Amino acid sequence: MDALYVFVTTSLPKAGAQVAGLPLTLNLLLTAYVILRRPNQTLLTMQRFRGLTIAYGTLFIFGTLSMLMALAQGVSAFTLSQMLIVVGSPLVGVAATRITRRQFSRIIICSMFIVNLYGIIQFAIGIENCAVAGITYTLGQDFTDKAIGFHADGTVEKIPSTYQSGGSLGIFNVLGVSFLLSSYQDSAIWKYMRYVALGLGLVGVMLSGSRSIQIPFFLLLIIFLIQFVKQLPPRKRSMTLGIGGVALAIGAACLYAQQTIVGHFFDRLVNQTLADKTASGRTEQWSQSFEVISQMNGWQLLRQIMFGQNPHTNVGGEGLPKFFFMFGIVSTIAFYGGLIYIIRRCWQCRRGRIVALGILCVFCAFCVDQSFYYPPNIMNISLFAAAVLKKPSFAKSNERIPQNTAFRSSASN
After folding, report:
1. What is the DSSP letter of 16?
2. Which pTM does this prediction carry?
3. Contacts of residue 41, Cβ cutoff 8 Å, sequence gap at least 6
4. Inter-residue long-range contacts of 254-263, CB under 8 Å, 24+ positions, other chains counted
5. Cα(234)–Cα(228) distance, rounded to whole angstroms?
6. Hey, which of 13, 31, 251, 377 has its CA 20 to 30 A from 384?
7. CA distances in angstroms from 98 to 2, 45, 179, 387, listed in the order given
8. CA nearest 311: which of 61, 22, 78?
9. Are 5 and 30 in contact (CB under 8 A)?
């Protein structure tokens, strides 16, 4: 069941139907099962790291209080569900600790194929022309209501694939690429599939159209590659660099032949970014929101700082400011501090350094947009981090891990 959960979460996270205005997806149903299946094991997984326990415990307590206060004041069911996603999603990492790293990596490879090949098809023939209600998107919802930049001619700025969001697609691909760069396969066919999945992941990041994840990823790409080379055995570095150079040349030639993908990427990342001085209205939203806060009385301001906004207060914003407006300063510090702690712990693990860079890119995205509200973004962070940080004893004895890149024990992490 844990393997099924990881597959559904990473490949078909929106499969399901909308019920009473809220999405009821297979991902969310399995999330509840995974967390509640063995509550003690779920809590013990979080308690392995003291810093993470403190950060998540603080987020859970203050986040729950924020939800209860908002519920008492008439918050909408949709907003309440978003808050619940933020508070509950970090717990799903337990699923990755109950399967082997080999199983996890092969599921990610399959998901990269499904998600990105479908995204390429969407780009080629149109989103609505290849949509399958209840599988590739939630039955009862409409793509035109999603923040993917629909144009009158039917084209979009962000390819959502099975994630219904270009931002979520980009986040998954960045995490998937970072994990596969540090993941080894003991089967020839899976090795080749891993290479293809990496290429598809890079194309998926380009097609996602989400600048909040594209910009940090491509700025850090050279560091990704340096860490990838460092973790290789010395005797394999020259061969890998040679194969990688040939693969990059072939990939560049293919992308050059398909100018529309390159043009889509360049126009979205460069032209639109330089032409928009307000960062899609974010600077204006933030200034307007803080102006609203400056007009609050003592009690209203205290409530805002400690537990987030009254649901009837018109406070907007994006990213980190939005998180603060919704949950308050304590939960905000706990949430973003917890992410920084995860990045640090992954970096301390040799085979986790590239994943740490991937999570750092997602951290940057969470600072400037609201992708933390939507499943499975936080869930994916939890799954990838747990797969990296879990103890070696969770793996099967016959799982081959190169000796020079084996995980350190939790004591040395």
Report:
1. E
2. 0.86
3. 94, 98
4. 255/203, 260/123, 261/123, 261/203, 261/206, 261/207, 262/206
5. 12
6. 251
7. 7, 10, 18, 9
8. 78
9. yes
What pLDDT, in 10s, does the model give residues 340-356? Answer: 999 999 999 878 999 99
Strand partners, 402: none
**Rounded to an integer, what distance in angstroms lies between the CA atom of residue 226 and that of residue 238?**
13
Please give the Cα distance from 135 to 142 (Å, whole number): 13
Strand locations in 96-170, DSSP E?
none
Confidence band of 372 (pLDDT split at 50, 70, 90): very high
Gap between the Cα atoms of 105 and 180, Å rounded: 7
The candidate with the shortest Cα–Cα distance to 92, out of 380, 389, 395, 394, is: 380
Q: Cα–Cα distance between 11 and 197 in angstroms, integer?
A: 13
Q: Tell me the C-alpha to C-alpha distance, in Å, between residue 179 and each of 168, 197, 226, 354.
A: 17, 11, 15, 7
Contacts of 14 (CB under 8 A, 6+ apart): 23, 25, 27, 136, 137, 138, 162, 163, 164
Which three-class secondary structure state does DSSP give residue 236?
helix
The 10s digit of each residue's pLDDT in 58-82 is 999 999 999 999 999 989 999 999 9
Distance of CA 232 to the CA centre of its chain: 26
What residues pair up with 18 in beta bridges, in sequence order?
A: 23
Rounded to an integer, what distance in angstroms lies between the CA atom of residue 284 and that of residue 183? Answer: 42
Any idea what DSSP says for residue 118? Answer: H
Do the Cβ atoms of 108 and 182 come closer than 8 Å? no
Q: How many CB atoms are located within 10 Å of the residue 6 CB?
A: 26
Residue 179's nearest CA partner among 234, 101, 114 is 101
Give the Cα separation of 187 and 193 in Å (integer).
10
Comparing CA positions, the residue from 318, 112, 323, 362 lying closest to residue 216 is 362
3-state class of 22 per DSSP? strand
C-alpha span between 319 and 368 (Å, rounded) = 4
